[in-house]
Every structure is written in structure tokens, then in C-alpha cells.
């Protein structure tokens, strides 16, 4: 038996916002990139300006943020890390937004390995 007609109108259809499908070459958020080596060009102060990574040319498209860590010798003086907030810090890398020639944009964490031009991409945020 068919249902009785209702005098209450149907609510307006809702639209769901679904996440966009990731491009086939996209790195999952907070992931280690497949090719970590990057060739980096920096300004005279050492801030990254552009790079070649994963077969693409990228430009730094915002203000880079320095990543710091306590200097390595501090752990001997403070083995329980109770005074870690007092430790001298050293620059260990940079976080910045990079934009490829094709328009793809992501945030990269990069670390220097002693060679001023060869850096490692340690995290990618798409």
C-alpha cells in the first residue's frame, strides 16, 4: 500500500562537499617524499628562494620559517631535558610554501646536510 501524501514539503536537497581527489603524483599529507634530495638556491642570508625537486622547478612563494633545535651538546648538560627551554638553538632547516611551474603548491620542510646546495625534503604538506 502506498504511503499517504504529506503536506510537509520535502527539505531542500543538501549538497555534500567531498574532498578533491588527490592527483596521482600527490604525496599524502605529512609524508616523507619519495625523492628527498633537492637542489636549493638561497639568498645571501641563507633563506631558500627556489629549488629543483622531484623533477620539477619550484619557487618559494611565501616567507620561509626557520626550524630550530637545541644544540647537540646541550643534552650532556641536561640529560632529563628539564631545562630544554634554556638551551641555545641552531637552525636545522626551513619550512616554506613552494609553487611549481605547473601551479602545484605545497609546504615543504627541508634540512641542510652540509652541502649548501643539496638539501633534503623531509616532509611535504599538500
Structure description:
The protein has 126 residues and is mostly beta strands. Helix content is 3%, strand content 40%. It contains one helix and seven strands, in the order E-E-E-E-H-E-E-E. The protein has one helix at 74-77; strands at 37-42, 48-53, 56-60, 65-70, 89-100, 105-112, 118-125. A hairpin with a 5-residue loop joins strand 1 and strand 2 (48-53). The longest helix is centred in the middle third of the chain and has 4 residues, at 74-77.
Number of strands: 7
H/E series: EEEEHEEE
Strand % is 35-45%
The end-to-end distance, rounded to whole angstroms, is: 53 Å
| Secondary-structure class | mainly beta
Q: Could you give a short account of the major beta sheet?
A: 6 strands, antiparallel, barrel
Helix amount: under 10%
Key terms:
single chain, 126 residues, mainly beta, 6-stranded antiparallel beta barrel, 7 strands, 40% strand, elongated
Précis, in short:
The chain is 3% helix and 40% strand. It is mainly β and 126 residues long.
How do the strands and helices of this protein lay out in sequence?
Layout: E1 37-42, E2 48-53, E3 56-60, E4 65-70, H1 74-77, E5 89-100, E6 105-112, E7 118-125
Antiparallel strand pairs: 1-2, 1-7, 2-3, 3-5, 4-5, 5-6, 6-7
Amino acid at each position: 500500500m502506498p504511503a499517504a501524501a504529506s503536506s510537509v514539503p520535502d527539505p531542500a536537497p543538501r549538497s555534500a562537499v567531498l574532498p578533491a581527489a588527490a592527483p596521482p603524483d600527490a604525496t599524502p599529507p605529512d609524508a616523507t617524499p619519495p625523492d628527498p634530495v633537492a637542489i636549493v638556491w638561497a639568498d645571501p642570508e641563507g633563506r631558500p628562494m627556489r629549488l629543483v625537486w622531484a623533477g620539477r622547478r619550484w619557487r618559494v612563494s611565501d616567507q620561509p620559517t626557520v626550524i630550530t633545535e637545541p644544540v647537540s651538546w646541550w643534552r650532556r648538560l641536561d640529560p632529563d631535558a628539564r631545562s630544554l627551554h634554556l638551551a641555545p638553538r641552531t637552525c636545522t632547516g626551513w619550512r616554506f610554501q613552494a609553487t611549481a611551474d605547473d601551479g602545484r603548491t605545497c609546504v615543504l620542510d627541508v634540512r641542510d646536510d652540509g652541502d649548501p646546495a643539496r638539501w633534503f625534503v623531509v616532509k611535504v604538506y599538500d
